[in-house]
């Protein structure tokens, strides 16, 4: 679990309707791994929402992973819409997820619309890269 003090005690930020501890919290603390590309994408959104850059780095593909991530503490992630998934299932090796992530920065609403690509690396789903759509 990240030690930012921002971990939600109620519902998971990914929008599953489950408590954080029973959803993305299990992936963030390492007790579970993502079974699908969409689950990984949702858990990465939640990592942004709770301020867990270590999880983001762990789940980034080695060929595109940056050396470090600095999260902007002013950004408050307030909602996620998964618009479309292609591939990325239990037995797949590649997948894409199109999503919109909603945020607030200094009282201004923002949206990130992206199609993210995921691949398996060493048997685990990893974020490869993404294309902005708006």
From TrEMBL:
It comes from the Bacteria. Gene3D superfamilies: 3.10.450.50. Residues 36-130 form the YchJ-like middle NTF2-like domain. SUPFAM superfamilies: NTF2-like. Coiled coil: none annotated. Belongs to the UPF0225 family. This is UPF0225 protein MODMU_5429. The lineage of its organism: Bacteria, Bacillati, Actinomycetota, Actinomycetes, Geodermatophilales.
């Amino acid at each position: 679990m990240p030690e930012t003090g921002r971990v939600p005690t109620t519902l998971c930020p990914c929008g599953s309707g489950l408590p954080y501890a029973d959803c993305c919290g299990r992936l963030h603390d390492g007790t579970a791994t993502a079974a699908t590309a969409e689950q990984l994408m949702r858990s990465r959104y939640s990592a942004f929402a709770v301020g867990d850059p270590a999880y983001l780095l762990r789940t980034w593909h080695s060929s595109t992973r940056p050396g470090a991530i600095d999260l902007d503490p002013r950004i408050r992630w307030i909602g996620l819409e998964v618009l479309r998934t292609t591939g990325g299932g239990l037995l797949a090796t590649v997948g894409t997820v199109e999503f919109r992530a909603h945020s607030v920065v200094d009282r201004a609403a923002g949206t990130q619309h992206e199609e993210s690509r995921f691949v398996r690396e060493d048997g685990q789903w990893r974020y490869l890269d993404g294309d902005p759509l708006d």
